[in-house]
Amino acid sequence: MATAFATDARTRAADKLYRRRRVVNVIALALACAAAVFGLAFLGWILWTLLVKGLGGVNLDLFIRDQPPPMEAGGLRNAIFGSIAMCTMGLLIGTPLGIAAGTWLAEYGNKRKFGTVVRFVNDILLSAPSIVLGLFVYAVFVAKPTPDSNALLGFSALSGAIALAFIVLPVVVRTTDEMLRLVPGQMREAALSLGVPQWKVIVQVLYKSALPGIVTGVLLALARISGETAPLLFTAFGNSFWTVDVTGPMAAVSIVMFNFAGKGYENWEHIAWAGALVLTAFVLLVSLVARALLLRNKISHD
């Protein structure tokens, strides 16, 4: 009798606990769905506003004419070229350094304390605000050390590219490190057992296997730096005219958007919205390509 009563009490307690967990699960699921719908609604609102206000300004003039003075027609040719030039130089500076540092972390510093320190510093750099990186480049390369001395680079596209390279670097380091560590150890052991030097194993075996993931990291870094404004305000400064001189100030789409938005001139606002739409479409395209490469890499590893 006592045993049956105890069993019945345990059953009721278990049913009560199960019902409470069901209620908590339903509430948590409802709150999560509501938060997702809330975020997606605002994102959809932003994208819809961007399409409505920017689509009318996307035409041939936007790509073949330079930024205009107030109340005159023009485009973003000089700014688009500046963005392409500085992003390309930023990738050319940051990508080789990032791949080299990520390779060292994965293959040589993986089990060292110094490697742990480098990963920690890289994570800090990865999450650092871009305006801080731009201010650092401004202090080192743009500002004059003393009133009587000259700056290293001054306001220029090169200074902007260096600032963007500091944003590219931690992304590529992290991606290269992770992708190389995902390569099975048997591939390293098989190559080393044949007497192949380690550097050749890295170049001819590991890089070949991790290449899609590394390229994905580079594309994600490109998507991140494409819309950066704050670092370029401190470094590239902007330019209202067409120029290919990377040692002087140069325009960028994000800088033009910052300067044109809210100034009260209708033509400037239309160009700013059109530039925002083009920039968003470019970032979306790069992100989709990166996702496709990442999915392909995952399928090949599976």
Automatic annotation (TrEMBL):
Residues 80-290 form the ABC transmembrane type-1 domain. Signal peptide: none annotated. It is found in: Cell inner membrane; Cell membrane. Keywords: Cell membrane, Membrane, Phosphate transport, Transmembrane, Transmembrane helix, Transport. It holds the Pfam family BPD_transp_1. InterPro entries: MetI-like (IPR000515), MetI-like_sf (IPR035906), Phosphate_PstA (IPR005672), Phosphate_transprt_permease (IPR051408). SUPFAM superfamilies: MetI-like (SSF161098). The chain crosses the membrane at residues 26-48, 79-105, 117-141, 153-173, 232-258, 270-294. Its main location: membrane. It is a multi-pass membrane protein. Belongs to the binding-protein-dependent transport system permease family. CysTW subfamily. NCBIfam families: 3a0107s02c. This is Phosphate transport system permease protein PstA. It comes from Lysobacter gummosus. The gene is pstA.
